[in-house]
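Archive transcription. Copying these from loose printouts into the bound notebook so they stop getting lost. Printout 1 of 2:
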Amino acid sequence: MRKLLFTVCLLATAGLASAQQANGNKVQMKELIDEQFRFAEQQYKVLAKNVPAQVMPKTYNLKTNKVETSDTKWWTSGFYPGSLLYIYEYTKDPTTLKEAELRLATLEKEKHYTGNHDLGFMMFCSFGNAYRITKSPKYRPTIDTAAASLITRYRPNAKVIQSWNSSKKWKGPVIIDNLMNLELLAWVTDHGGDAKYKKIAINHANTSMKNHFRPDYSSYHVVDYDMKTGAVVKRGTAQGAFDASAWSRGQGWALYGYTMMYRFTKEKRYLNLAKNIASFILNHPNMPADKVPYWDFDAPGIPNTYRDASAAAVIASALLELGQYTEKKDAQVYIDAAEEMITSLSSDAYRAKAGQNGGFLLMHSTGALPLRSEVDVPLTYADYYYLEALMRYKNWYL
């Protein structure tokens, strides 16, 4: 009897200690998240001063100490207003909202853009968040028009949305990033739009599931199609270390994309694929201890090569959503890993000092190393998905 009582007491004590540790961790994360959003509010006021009207920030040139910008047709144009909106959602700072509205007005014309597949990045990360946060109906027509523009790139014979136009190198390229643009289509259908948008999103997700993944659940970056027949011409990369490598941000896009498609469809195949992709990422022998990936999981020179903070931000945000749909044991693995990534990104190793970095939040992202483009620099989408991860953790786990 005494042994039984002693065992019960031990279990009770262990349970209490575990609960206290969990509560203490929540307090720490709450403080961390608050600190990051307060920092972001001030830092983005610095960034706003460095970005002229009619253009959007892309990165910061460490050699010239100047913010590099793009026109609104560039694929990253929606991330700056999207980040401002996440900051406003947390801080309720009217100056931040005013800046977001000014940038949305500049971006709005791109709802008609059909030059590539990036309408979701451009218009849903911006106007989608604006509609969700402000509830203003004025943003809805822009979202609907953007969805109509995006599906002009749908190729029914191959059942995919063509990412880039044909070139000497690619006949009908579809990149793994394209999964991210499906949210725009599925959302429009689920909010009163035509059913065809979601159907196209599902078709694209199914085709990509079939053709983009290797047996270990890593993803190719580019699959090239014969759009008349749907046959795969070849598989390769544009931004990874080599054709068969696991480009880190690409694995993040895949994880995020299929987790998001499960949200819209409750299709178990998507959930299972997302879990397998998460397992590949989190158990990879080349994942660093701080959970901020090298720019490619198969990059030459590991550990003496570049990291990609943007990949960590995308993966962290995706893992937090995946934790919403999985059993407690698996969910805790995803949440813990995302927490480690967020904590690392919020540390001095990756987060800029106040007033520095051109106004961007994060350092040490890698855009396209093989092209020698945007290597070891801040990137606008790294900030966006970092802020999204912070907001998701706050809303779902605190």
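Printout 2 of 2:
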Amino acid sequence: MKLTAISAATLFLMAACNAPATRNNSADSTASEAPGLSDSLRNEIAAIAARSGGTVGVGIMNLHTRDTLNFQNDPVYPMQSVFKFPIAMAILHQVDEGKMKLEQKIYIDKKWMVPGTWSPLRDAFPDGNVDQTLAQLLEYMVSQSDNIACDLLIDLAGGEAAINDYVHGLGVKQIAIVASEAKMASAWDVQFTNFCAPSAMVQLLDILHKGSALSKTSNDFLWDIMLKTSTGPKRLKGLLPVGTPVAHKTGTSGVRDGVAAATNDAGIIVLPNGQKLAIVVYVMNARSDEATREATIAQIAKAAYDKVAQ
């Protein structure tokens, strides 16, 4: 569906009005943060962020010790495809409720196979008219970041509002899911209506780790398809020891007038001692090239890994 400039602006204002108040936390430090994690690591993150060419938001939590660090933690960062992680949670919740089944087949009409968007699903079945299981669509959406599978699943879930309400119902408030991939592609500003604070995405990752929102079967399935993520190999995983398990979801915008709105990665790193580190890095409105933006994420992930794995 095409949005006019007026409707895109209206959507942005509606999302902003429903969002929590933002905080101007260039070096946000809260009582819940552990000094051992936040002091030296914060300085290192600040130095890396200064070279990024954009605005960098970071959320980190050792999911075993609960040590936490937030850097520039305003809920204004556009998620882009990172939002496919909470969409998958909402779909799997409906599976747990018996409204859907992972093995059920979904008929995909040719009308869904639109050009000009990232879709391994469309590349495999350009003429549509194919059945795919719900599990296959979820894997396309999460592991391969497929945009058409994403919009199909949003439709199956009952729309963006239903997904947004589900996530807020988990207690995660500094997040808004109001626009599909097609809507985001219709106008540049629409992507900013799907926003999330780094700490809020860490909160969702913590819920995944705890297994407190979904059944064990659904939680294990989501963990597995996030481990299989093939996009963004030079981001969170880029500088980690080869073979380090990382369950993650990337997000990437286009570039307009030399500015990349979003270069993101959010996930859970499995440490050598078996502990897990949730980490979210958003690089927003950057004028640097893709290599620099991805290196920013990789360097922050490596700094955090080295800090907690030592």
